[in-house]
Amino acid sequence: VQRSAVGFPRTAQHSKALADGQTRDKNQTPSLIMPSLKAIILTTLYVLMSAAAVHFGLYAVRIWHEPTHRALSADTLGEAAYELWFYSSYHNSSLYRYASFCMHVVPGGITFLLFPLQFLRPLRLRFPAVHRWTGRVALLAVVVSILAVFPLFWQSLMGINCIAAASFFGVLTLLYTVLAYRSAREKRFADHREHTIRLWALLFGVFYMRVLIGVIGAMLYPANALLHKPTAHELFSLEFWLGWCTASAFAELYIFATRPVTA
Q: pTM for this one?
């Protein structure tokens, strides 16, 4: 009779389960990064991402109000650039365009405030109902925000490259939203995780591209570049394409690095 390490008789089922577990351990591919270092890196990225998302979300839900939008944007863009690209295009335009702008920025801000919660493992495990319902509200906010912004971009003054980028990545965002929701409903949680990461990369790219273009503009362009349409269109094109492409590439790298791999 085989006995366990503490002296109790070991059943055939127990021996088989132990052997299966040992086989899985042997077949598990070692992580390329030490677990402790990996945890530190991922935690740091999550904290920074969440802080940026909350900051941008609080900004977005307030800019439907023109004086607030002016106060928050004029210091970074300049009063003249704000007047040219935001005031005249949204606040001082038709009721239809202003309503579309509000339906884009307010749900978009709600998305930024809720989405970081979806990646909190303790919340998923201890309060699954909160995870599900905040996720549903966030996905609904994504759909409303994207559908509202399409008419704005199709009438945009930012140039054809921006319109093409916004249309392409807008459709891709809606696709990942549907895939994330469907995979969750079908309890394909591994697929749900990856679709949600790809979706969040596109959403967070809206904030990240602003940081990116601020750096590029400060390094390579004159201070008044946004006041001249040719250079402004060039900057906007770089912002949209480079921002969303690099954000998506980072998401794929993150998924690859954190996906469980077995031999």
A: 0.82
85 C-beta neighbours (distance < 10 Å), count: 19
Helices and strands per DSSP (H, E), number in the chain: 10, 0
- Residue-wise pLDDT tens digits, 63-108: 999 999 999 887 778 888 888 888 888 888 889 899 999 999 999 9
Q: At a CB cut-off of 8 Å and minimum separation 6, what does 162 contact?
A: 153, 156, 233, 236, 237, 240
Say how far apart CA 240 and CA 218 lie, in whole Å.
17
Answer positive or negative: Cα dihedral of 252, 253, 258, 261.
Answer: positive
The burial class, CB within 10 Å (0-12 / 13-18 / 19+), for 145 is buried
Between CA 185 and CA 193, with CA 191 as vertex, the angle to 5 degrees is 90
How do residues 242-257 score in pLDDT, each as one tens digit? 999 999 999 999 999 8
* The residue to which tokens 């990064």 are assigned: 33
